[in-house]
Automatic annotation (TrEMBL):
GO molecular function: dipeptide transmembrane transporter activity
Family: Belongs to the binding-protein-dependent transport system permease family.
Coiled coil residues, start to end: none
Protein name in the entry: Peptide/nickel transport system permease protein
Record key words, sorted: Cell membrane, Membrane, Transmembrane, Transmembrane helix, Transport
SUPFAM superfamilies: MetI-like
PANTHER family linked to this entry: DIPEPTIDE TRANSPORT SYSTEM PERMEASE PROTEIN DPPB-RELATED
Gene Ontology cellular component list: plasma membrane
Pfam family, one: BPD_transp_1
Location(s), subcellular: Cell membrane
Domain of life: Bacteria
Membrane topology reported for the UniProt record: Multi-pass membrane protein
Limits of the ABC transmembrane type-1 domain: 95-292
Organism: Catenuloplanes niger
């Protein structure tokens, strides 16, 4: 229980730091604060007065900062003066497609990593290990947008198997999910395989084999669990970055989602939306890393006695 509370406390500190950094970036940037907040939205005296009221710009800066944090705690993300709508409504409409894409990509990446690690672990098939290691290095070293362009060229333009753009139907989700999943699978596969190699040299594996267990059973029942801890740490970090990667991939495939809203907000200097996306990304990163830390307790029961 102490471990859980400690992780939650750390997560709250990270969220506070991200929100504070975003707010200071807005406050300290050159130019008038009202001009930065309004961006390319309608610039009228009435809207300027509304911004002063909404952000309490007529009060001392420390009061403005405290009010900003209080609004975040209440879930008030402000108003998009470019779209003339509450930011919560704007993001609320676009988050489901992004979450759908990120969840599928994460699950696919983990599945591919486990399959590749188990297939290439040990010294049974050195040629397969070399092929998998080369493929993993290639996808990890290649930017996600370039992977997406290659997949589009091959499977959409040439073979016509998947739609070129859009977000309608399951088929439109396949290539973006694979684009995000391949780098995850490449990095996780390398870490998992190294962990499996170390686990296969442990005495408990020798004992399991002496009892007559086959190599596949030894890998699945014994070695894989011991190799999971470093992979879970890395997975939590990678999944936390999925939102940022999805922003780029959604643009490549013309999908709806947070990516399109973020790009429009940056190009239109719609600072309330940009600030909200920063806080949202930090919240997702904290939540996923906290879940990864708590997963340790399920994977290794010995850790429960030390927390």
């Amino acid at each position: 229980m102490r471990h859980v509370l400690r992780r939650l406390g750390t997560g709250l500190v990270v969220l506070w730091a991200a929100a504070t950094a975003a707010y200071l970036a807005l406050l300290l940037a050159p130019g008038d604060v009202v001009d930065r907040i309004i961006g390319d939205g309608a610039d009228t005296p009435e809207i300027r007065a509304q911004i002063v009221r909404d952000w309490h710009l007529d009060r001392p800066e420390i009061v403005q900062y405290a009010d900003y944090l209080w609004r975040l705690l209440r879930g008030d993300l402000g108003t998009s003066y470019l779209l003339q709508r509450p930011v919560a409504d704007v993001l609320g409409e676009q988050i489901p497609p992004t979450l759908q894409l990120a969840a599928l990509a994460g699950a696919l990446g983990v599945a591919l990593a486990v399959l590749a690690a188990v297939a290439g672990a040990g010294d049974r098939r050195p040629w397969l290990r070399r092929v998998l290691s080369t493929a993993e290095l290639a996808v990890v070293s290649t930017p996600s947008f370039l992977i997406g362009i290659v997949l589009l060229t091959v499977f959409s333009f040439r073979l016509g198997l998947f739609p070129v753009a859009g977000g309608a139907g399951p088929a439109a989700l396949v290539l973006p999910a694979v684009t995000l999943a391949l780098p995850i699978a490449g990095l996780l596969g390398q870490v998992l395989r190294d962990g499996l190699d170390r686990a296969l040299d442990e005495p408990f594996v020798v004992t399991a084999r002496a009892r007559g267990l086959r190599d596949r059973a030894v890998l699945a029942r014994h070695a894989l669990r011991h190799a999971l801890l470093p992979a879970v740490t890395l997975a939590g970090w990678q999944f936390g970055l999925l939102l940022g990667s999805a922003v780029i991939v959604e643009q490549v495939f013309g999908r709806p989602g947070v990516g399109r809203v973020t790009l429009d907000a940056v190009l239109g200097s719609d600072m309330p939306v940009v600030l909200a996306v920063v806080v949202l990304a930090a919240a997702v990163h904290v939540a996923l890393n906290t879940l990864a830390d708590l997963a340790y307790l399920l994977i290794d029961p010995r850790l429960r006695r030390t927390t």
